[in-house]
Amino acid sequence: MEAIPPVPPRILIVDDDDSVRDVISVLLREEGYNCVVASGAEMALDLAGQEETPLVISDMKMPGKDGLWLLEQLRERYPDTSVIMLTGYGDTESAVDCLRRGAVDYLLKPPKLTDLIRAIERALAKRRIELARKRYQKKLERKVRDRTTELRNALRDIAHTYQSTLLALVSALDAREHETSDHSLRVVRYTSAIAERMGIKGPELDEIGRGALLHDIGKIGVPDAVLLKPGKLTPEEWLEMRKHPDIGFQMIQNIPFLATPAQIVLSHQERWDGQGYPRNLRGQEIHIGARIFAVADTLDAMTCDRPYRKGTTFANAIAEISRCAGTQFDREVVRAFLDIGEQALIKHKEDMHSRKLTLVQSEMQAHEAEATLARLSEDLDDLDQTIPGPTGPGSRATTPPAPGSPGGAPGANGPGVVLSVLAGGRQGNPRD
User: Fold this and answer.
1) What is the pTM for the complete model shown?
2) Do residues 287 and 264 lie in contact, with contact meaning Cβ atoms separated by under 8 Å?
3) Measured over all CA atoms, what is the biggest interatomic distance in the chain, rounded to whole angstroms?
4) pLDDT at site 2
5) Torsions phi, psi of 88, nearest 5?
6) Taking a C-beta distance cutoff of 8 angstroms, is the pair 217, 248 a contact?
7) Which residues of the chain have pLDDT under 50?
8) Distance between CA atoms of 345 and 103, rounded to whole angstroms?
9) Cα separation of 190 and 299, whole Å?
10) Which domains does the chain have, with CATH numbers?
11) Which Pfam families does the entry mention (predicted)?
12) What is the pLDDT of residues 373-404, one digit of tens each?
């Protein structure tokens, strides 16, 4: 099979002198180039737009639009087209001006054929290298975009995995304390709402949310006899309970993405007036996330039912938090909390409850679907057993059972079972 010869590059020759234009085009055609000619700059620009033109050889001085105008237009419209300028004036200033504006070479008229061929070969080689560089750059940019997208997705997946792990851990802790079920998730919701009202957003808001979620993580180290005691704690038991902020801090302080949440965990029992624990911090010494959490935690503790008391109303809780501004709580945080309003706070709690019910209902529906599928499988197994098998090797029953004979009348083992299965369950089962 013969190889297909390469298509010769298209060269556009522009000169107002017919003799120069014709001589150059004839010589280049003999060298194997595909030549197109134009008598002026505007005509040349039109021809360059009709078909890809790797190279233009243009005279510098022409009536009307000159070669410099054509050079600028070609660089603007067709930047991949190389331009060699010809001129009868051998001044260095004109050559520098052409090269500065983007020409790849500059020759005197009439050019020697060898000089012209070398200039053409240099220009086309330079163009090939430039096109290859651009292709490589685009390929590299596309690969960088793809890798960046993959990395961004991977980081998002990792963050989601981290968050799911934290939620599972906190859910286990809440399950241990039966009386505070879902407490941590509600407190995160309230804390985030207050923080957003204070203008906190982005990564800082996420970190405060994680701190609120993990605030009681240290209770893992508190004995069940103390943590789950239904009555009042003794002084010794109370000292044991007060260790949980420091225990939680020690658990997560060395995890890089939990460095800030660890400070919130350590400070979440501090008070604005310095009467909190474990370090008796005061005012601005307390992390802003811990100051916000203190208000959110108090709201949830007051409005939720406990075995030993009934939860109070949101109005009462809001009034009590407002009364304690400046002593137990940061005034600025309380002001942002009050700006949210009672109805919005109630809606946060109702939304959390509705979301939990939706998840529970989805789980119940999934269990019911699995049970129905199991019953259908059993019915199909029973049906397979009622269908007569072959009477012999390689033979099939060809005579249908007579009406009234076993298997001929609708019944528990006949077509009635088929209809029952197709209808979605066993006959006589009211659930199906």
Assistant:
1) 0.53
2) yes
3) 118
4) 56
5) -90, -5
6) yes
7) 179, 357, 359-360, 390-432
8) 71
9) 8
10) 10-136 (3.40.50.2300), 177-359 (1.10.3210.10)
11) HD_5, Response_reg
12) 666 666 656 655 655 554 444 444 444 444 44
